[in-house]
Amino acid sequence: MTKEKRYVVTMDVYVYAEDDHKARFKAHKLADKVGARVTEIGEQPFASFTYRKLNIYGLVESKL
After folding, report:
1. pLDDT score at 6
2. Taking 50 as the threshold, does the pLDDT of residue 64 lie above it?
3. Strand-pair partners of 41
4. pTM as predicted
5. By three-state DSSP, how is residue 41 classified?
6. Average of pLDDT values for 56-61?
7. Domain annotation covers residue 26
8. What does the H/E/C string look like for the chain?
9. What are 7-55's pLDDT values in tens digits?
10. Domain tally for the chain?
């Protein structure tokens, strides 16, 4: 019997939303679908080096 190995997969996913709350909601919803957890969310305009880290904790409203 072959013992299974465990692998860590790191993914970057871009989510487009109108504001921080909707972006956080979409990120958590996507993570739930694939059985993952959100480790960081940040805003980064297209073609920009500017990055603003968001708070990933708190209430994620389901009616957005």
Report:
1. 83
2. no
3. 54
4. 0.68
5. strand
6. 64
7. yes
8. CCCCCCCCCCCCCCCCCCCHHHHHHHHHHHHHHHCCCCCCEEECCCCCCCCEEECCCCCCCCCC
9. 777 788 899 999 988 998 999 999 999 888 888 889 998 888 998 988 8
10. 1
Cα–Cα distance for residue pair 61/64, rounded to 1 Å: 7
Any domain includes 20: yes
- The residue segments making up the domain with residue 32 are 8-64
Beta bridge partners of 34: none
In a domain, 3, yes or no: no
Cα separation of the two ends of the chain = 48
Dihedrals φ, ψ of 37, to 5°?
-130, 150
Q: Any idea what DSSP says for residue 2? A: P
Residue 1 lies in a domain: no
Q: How many residues does the chain have?
A: 64
